[in-house]
Design a protein that fits this description.
The protein is an alpha/beta fold. It contains 13 helices and 21 strands. It has two domains: 4-78, Alpha-Beta Plaits (2-Layer Sandwich); 82-394, Peptidase S8/S53 domain (Rossmann fold). Helices cover 31% and strands 23% of the residues. The strands form five sheets. The protein has a seven-stranded parallel sheet, sandwiched between helices. Strands 6, 7, 19, 20 and 21 form a five-stranded mixed sheet that branches.
Length: 438
């Protein structure tokens, strides 16, 4: 079977263009499958040792041959993914927030006083790598990995280093304020899935997930990246996210994206079991305003996303930009805005909760978030609202009441409003095609 998304891409490219592919097989991957795929013309073949996927490249004729093999369940497009953070852009006025101020809004430091710093919890940051010698990061960095071809784990883009500092960064005083991460006692693992220009492939991300979960045995993943589409939450990476959350009890924290408009959540943020994160401002124009750039829900199949939000800065064109200062490449510091910034902050907060309850599941987290905001409903801008980890911690170990009838009704009404939009075709601009096929 050829996935509909791949069919769309095949219709847009020139004849004999070789496309990156993800091939889902029936059962476990075995050597004979790789041999048959090579015989069908698939190139650059590699496979997962855990999930039922084989990766490679092929033209339309190869895709048609591969899809007819008896062991092949589905052939999908190996979608490009991008970082969900933005470096400062020139505005009339810039509000630069030290990372510590953003973390304080979550209530995380209050839990440190109770001995909850993330100690014993492993967090994998899947991004552009890490500044391995950075003073905020080096003391807690326990492992690195890269899935990017011809690349080292070192971060040459700054995005990954920033995210690592937001998860578990050690306290650092700067002229612009104090910087620290949400869970400074957590063990940090950096897995590089994006190149130095902030781009990658879904298969690279899947390689990193496999390494993080099955080699490093991470409890929590932070992914400040995604594609331009949610693919209905049914693409290979969404399947992987759902699998690790259910079978390995990993909490996957994933950025919603920076596409501004409703129904613009990317993949894997559209996965059912993803803890999908939107962004809110720290103080521009005021505290907890949904960031203008933050992708809004629901997904294209009317799943209510994002699930929660955290400080990510804001952009108020043409006058103001609010950005958050964190770690950068080569031991430096940089200010960024985006749902990329909100995501590792939430991941760090999850590390605090996971330390408090070591079997905390993604499903339990949904109940904790609902209870913390009851009777206010989850919404398509910030989910259950800006995270207050103190409120989530307060309900740990208690019988959390189910989502009230009022919340359910409000959610249903929201989805009804978006239903007509879900039926409309989503057209790609020439610019998007150029980026995607680059």
């Amino acid at each position: 079977m050829i996935d509909d998304r791949l069919k769309t891409v095949m219709d847009q490219v020139k004849p004999n263009t070789s496309l990156p592919l993800i091939i889902q097989v029936q059962g476990k991957v075995v050597p004979t499958m790789l041999q048959e795929l090579a015989g069908s013309g698939l190139t650059g073949i590699r496979s997962s040792s855990t999930f039922p996927y084989i990766y490679g490249k092929g033209t339309e004729s190869v895709i048609n041959l591969v899809s007819k093999l008896a062991f092949v369940a589905r052939v999908s497009y190996d979608e490009p993914v991008y970082s969900h953070g933005m470096l400062n852009v020139p505005f009339e006025s810039e509000v630069r927030i030290p990372l510590g101020d953003a973390i304080k809004l979550t209530g995380a430091p209050d839990l440190w006083e109770q001995g909850l710093t993330g100690k014993g919890i492993k967090v994998g940051v899947i991004d552009t790598g890490v500044s391995t010698e950075h003073e905020m990061i080096k003391p807690v960095l326990k492992g690195t990995f890269t899935a990017v071809p011809d690349s080292t784990p070192e971060d040459e883009q700054s995005h990954g280093s920033w995210c690592c500092s937001a998860v578990a960064g050690q306290i650092k005083e700067t002229p612009q304020g104090i910087l620290f991460g949400a869970a400074p006692g957590a063990s940090l693992y950096s897995l590089k899935a994006l190149s130095d220009d902030g781009k990658g492939q879904m298969s690279w991300v899947m390689d990193c997930i496999e390494q993080a979960v099955h080699t490093y045995q991470c409890d929590i993943l932070s992914l400040s990246l995604g594609s331009l589409y949610d693919n209905g939450g049914a693409d290979p990476i969404s399947h992987v996210i759902n699998t690790i959350a259910k079978e390995n009890n990993v909490i996957p924290v994933i950025a919603a994206g920076n596409s501004f408009v409703p129904m613009s959540i990317g993949s894997p943020g559209g996965a059912t079991m993803a803890l999908t994160v939107g962004a809110v401002s720290v103080k521009t124009p005021q505290k907890y305003v949904a960031s203008t750039f933050s992708s809004k829900g629901p997904t294209t199949v009317l799943t209510l996303k994002p699930d929660i939000a955290a400080p990510g800065g804001n952009i108020m064109p043409p006058k103001y930009v609010e950005s958050i200062l964190g770690a950068a490449k080569h031991g430096q510091y940089v200010a960024m805005s985006g749902t990329s910034m909100a995501t590792p902050i939430v991941a760090g907060c999850m590390a605090l909760l996971r330390q408090a309850k070591n079997d905390l599941s993604r499903t339990e987290i949904e109940g904790l978030m609902a209870a913390a905001t009851m009777p206010a409903p989850k919404n398509t801008f910030v989910g259950y609202g800006p995270i207050d980890v103190r409120m989530l911690f307060k309900n740990l170990g208690k019988t959390v009441p189910g989502i009230s009838a009022v919340q359910n009704l409000a959610t249903s009404l929201q989805m009804g409003l978006y239903a007509p939009l879900a039926l409309l075709p989503r057209q790609e601009s020439n610019d998007i095609r150029a980026v995607r096929l680059n």
